[in-house]
Amino acid sequence: MSQPEKASQDEAAKGRIIKHMNKDHQDSLVRYLEHFCRLSSFSARNAKLEAVALDSLIVSCGETEKYTVLIQPPMNAWSDARSRFAALDAEAVAGLDRSDITVKKYKRPRGWMAAWLVYVTICTCSFSTRANFLPGSLLYDSVLGRVDGFARFCYAVQPLVLSTIVICHSAEAVYMDQSRLQKHSVPRFGSLWWKWMASALTEGFPSFRRFDSVVKEEKERKANAKH
Question: pLDDT (tens digit, 9 = 90+) per residue, 165-180?
Fold first, then answer.
């Protein structure tokens, strides 16, 4: 094979690798930057493979920021890329204490979970201020005026109930981030992160069940792909 032909084949191989990584394995590129280049998940969230050589990768995460990820020892041929990139990702997953399952989608509440969301929203809005339990408020005049004793009770416990709601749901949101989102490589402060955090903050425990179902689906998809 002539030198020009070999150079042409090398460029074609590089192009296929770059396209494949950016399209199907962007989460791995993010982990490369987090682990090997010590970037935060937020800073690395837009990772993009710019160039590849037998001994290194050039990964960008912005218009000007570019980082080099070394491949040691260097690959012998482009056919080694799949296994070597997988090994790099496995090293990053272990070093970051992450799962090898990446969550890339949000699942909306449906059925009883949607009903629970409506219930929690109504309760939170109702107990957001004591004025809701006094004559003249929409809630009192339309509903609670018929059960004045219950309205007085709600008025008395409103600060406690509101504090409990805020504390519990804030704690659940923090736990969602620590136990689920970071573990499954959801970039912090990205749009997907905000969706799951908002669900944890408003709904509480049902959002965890939905997230875990997404993880289960991805595990099954990954297992089936191996067969």
Answer: 999 999 999 999 999 9
